């Protein structure tokens, strides 16, 4: 992303570009396999189209390695709440 990539009608464009470098984001596009290895390593500073064929079986195999309750756990973001109270279809109030 370069300075000239901003649309001319961007609100506060002059303030956005005041202290920014010529290149704001230098790419780094990549394709990683489900196991974390690079299928195509990051491409920095060049414009390119990255295309790869992924093995769907590898995706299924790696899902077995994800421990959502282990050290990946983020209880501050996601949690499961189980309401053990008996639920009724109707309730009557006087």
Global morphology: flat
Q: Give the strand tally.
A: 2
Helix amount: 10-25%
Strand content: 5-15%
Estimate the mean pLDDT confidence: 86
Instruction: Count helical runs.
Output: 2
Structural class: alpha+beta
- Tell me the Rg in angstroms: 24 Å
Largest sheet: 2 strands, antiparallel
In sequence order, what are the helices and strands, one letter per element? HEEH
**Biggest sheet: strands side by side, in what order?**
1-2
Distance between the termini: 64 Å
The stretches of 5 or more residues where confidence is low (pLDDT under 50) are: none
How would you portray this structure in words?
With 94 residues, this protein is an alpha+beta fold. It has a domain at 3-63. The chain is 14% helix and 14% strand. It contains two helices and two strands; from the N terminus they run αββα. It has helices spanning 13-17, 56-63, and strands at 27-32, 38-44. The protein has a two-stranded antiparallel ribbon with strand order 1-2. β1 and β2 (38-44) form a beta hairpin. The longest helix has 8 residues, at 56-63. It is flat and about 65 Å long. The mean pLDDT is 86.
